[in-house]
Structure formats: C-alpha cells, structure tokens
Amino acid sequence: MRASSSLTVVVFFAFFVAAGPARIASAGNAPVAPINTRDGLAIKGFDRVAYFDSRQPTKGSSHYSLQLNGVTYQLSTHESLQRFKINPTKFAPRYGGYCAYAMSLNRIADIDPARWAIVDGKLYLNNGFVAQSLWSLNKRANIETADKNWAVFPKQPVANGGEPKAP
What we know:
Blueprint: H1 3-19, E1 24-26, E2 37-38, E3 41-42, H2 50-53, E4 61-68, E5 71-75, H3 78-86, H4 100-104, E6 107-109, E7 112-119, E8 122-126, H5 129-137, H6 139-152
C-alpha cells in the first residue's frame, strides 16, 4: 500500500472514531430526517443568515425564531429573521444541515456549526476539524459526489417535501 493511501485510511478512520457511532449512518440504514435538528432546532440554534452576512457562526435567539415544518430556526437579529422569512431556501445549508464531508462518503454525520464554508453562494457544514480539513482538500469533487449521494440518500417523508418554503 502506498504511503498516501495509508494516510487516507488512517485519516478516514480517525474521522469516524472522532464522530462517534451514534452520529454516523450510511445510506443502507433507516431514512434520516431531511433537516438535521437537535431538540427541534436547525443548525443547533445557529443563525443560518449570519454565515452569509457576518461571515461567522452566530448563535441564534429564541426572540428571533420561526417554526416551519416542525423545525425551529433561530436567528440572531430582527434583520436576519426578515431575510430568512423572505427566502429560507437561500440560506439553507446543503444536505439538510448534515456534514458535507460525510455526505461525500455517502454517510450522515452531525455538524459542528463552527466548521463551515460558503462555496458558490451555498452553505456547507462539517462535523469537525478533521472532516472540514478533508473536505477542503478538494471541495469541488466532494461537493459533486455529495450532491449525487444526497439526491438518493433515504429521507423520511415530509408533508411538503423537506426544506421549508417561504411563508
């Protein structure tokens, strides 16, 4: 085995060990929720608009929240809330808010809101430092593969098709 292949295997294994078995699922498992939530909150309560506006993860507030399709979205300011209401899909993280790197491997993993990137106007979240680093090595190829995987990844049915529509 070549040295680079060995390194890839070691890093791949480290990613899955760090992520923990409860947070990783493969396409062969039961369907997942189309939007990653914790305690009913999308992106663990972080303001999805702030990634675009202030270019940093910003904790949302219950004072600026909106519930769509059984998911609560918290924003950090009144302005963010208004922008989100106008076009919620514009600010949606790819792959339902699951880890972009894991999806490129046809897996589901939770995210760390501090591990993110915007590529071509789209928000990508990752599980942690290792996942973010590996994903960043070849963003375009990882995005292309993840897009194909997400399109066929088994998801639980949602009344109106998943990602919220503008109210």
